[in-house]
Amino acid sequence: MMKRNQMTRQKNFRKCNGCKLAVGIILAVVAGVALLRWYEQGEALRFVKKMGNGWNLGNALDCYGSQEKIGTVTDYETRWGNPVIEPELFQTVKGAGFDTVRIPVTWYEHMDAAGQIDPAWLNRVRQVVDDARAADLYVIINMHHEEWIELTDEKVDETEVRLCGAWRQIAEYFADYEEELLFEGMNEPRLTDSEYEWNGGTREARANVNRLNAAFVNTVRSCGGNNAKRYLLLPTYADAAQEEVLREMELPQDGHLIVTVHRYIPYSFAQKEDGTAKWSLEQKEDTAEIDELMEQLETYFLDRRIPVIIGEFGCRNRGNTAERVEWTRYYVRKAKESGIMCIWWDNGGKPEEPGKYGLMDREKNRWIYPEIVKELTEVEK
After folding, report:
1. Displacement of CA 77 from its chain's centroid (Å)
2. What mean pLDDT value characterizes the chain?
3. Pairing relation of β-strands 366-367 and 360-361?
4. Cα-atom radius of gyration of the chain, to the nearest Å?
5. Is residue 4 a contact partner of residue 12, using CB atoms and an 8 Å limit?
6. Helix pair angle (284-300, 321-337), 10° resolution
7. Rounded distance, CA 312 to CA 298, Å?
8. What is the DSSP string of 235-253?
9. Residue among 86, 88, 121, 89 nearest 105 (CA)
10. What is the pTM of this model?
11. Are 140 and 103 in contact (CB under 8 A)?
12. First vs last Cα of the chain: how many Å apart?
């Protein structure tokens, strides 16, 4: 009996040690994965810092609404009044001190009924990307005015299939491009034409943005080449920054992701069509919303080592260049203090006209507001 008890104790001891060893191995693996994620997130923060501040090539490759084929691919990019995109434009952007250009792209008018993207359109996007990369700029391409993106539970399955199908083609086409080319999955995904469109959406819609973001990441990662580690931008609902939107955003387990939001604040100065031309550093109500934005982005993302890009911001021309310069200086410096990069929204046209966001006269390839450009590019990196 004593011998049997001793054998039982030895067996239980070995079993216990085996369990401890197994648990130890599991904990070591978990710790290793966590350490790798921690390192990758730090690497992502450093990567975004190298991107400096940026400039949007708006109202060009993102033109839409033609309803039918209107001619060559360059006919599309000039449809909203801007000239054909030439390589010299990117040399001017780089020469001003910008390190990044965001190139909004609308794809759906260049797809057939089966969702296949017109090869001529893919080639034109590549030409523009190549010209920007030749100027040594980081490049972000996205899906901009895709009106088929719907966030209701009834429509999200269809949206996911279409989103993944399009991004699979884009990611495979650009698979060999280095990490200086970034993909942004969606632009301002929201409940269009609803009472919830711009006020933070619904819990259902926010959850479906998370779902589509995850599907986008999985699709790109499966497409081979440099897509395995390419940096990907994920929007919040509507690229908004209400607290419930930031709080409910979920990111896949991936060390090469960047959160993106758009903020034209304070609204009455930066975005409202009949808003005010007045803004002052001395007025607390003028700076409070900018301060709050940076604090919230720190709390929900930067403090967790998740990088953030403000993919669109800017303020309308109201004949108030001095105020715009002061606002820009404050905005980008507050962002840099938090480790956030900013990309100015430039929709081209005639920037000197009231209500415009543009900084560059694209016809003449020259800056109209070099004072604002200086504030964007000379902020300490």
Report:
1. 21
2. 92
3. antiparallel
4. 24
5. no
6. 30
7. 18
8. E-GGG---HHHHHH----S
9. 121
10. 0.90
11. yes
12. 77
Rounded to whole angstroms, the Cα distance separating 25 from 21 reads: 6
Nearest to 309 by CA among 198, 151, 183: 183
Residue 72 has pLDDT above 90, yes or no: no
Q: Which amino acid is at 327?
A: W
Q: Where are the beta strands (DSSP E) in the chain?
A: 54-56, 100-103, 138-142, 181-184, 232-235, 257-262, 308-313, 341-344, 360-361, 366-367
Task: Give mean pLDDT, residues 344-359.
Answer: 96
With contact defined as beta carbons under 8 Å apart, do 248 and 238 qualify? no
Q: Per-residue pLDDT for 241 more than 70?
A: yes
Question: What CA–CA distance (Å, rounded) separates 251 from 146?
Answer: 22
Q: Exposed (0-12), middle (13-18) or buried (19+): which is 242, by Cβ within 10 Å?
A: middle
> Looking at residue 65, what is its pLDDT?
83
Known catalytic residues are 188, 312
Q: If you count DSSP H runs as helices and E runs as strands, how many of each does the chain have, helices first?
A: 11, 10
Q: Is 309 strand, coil or helix?
A: strand
- Euclidean distance between CA atoms 166 and 144, whole angstroms: 13
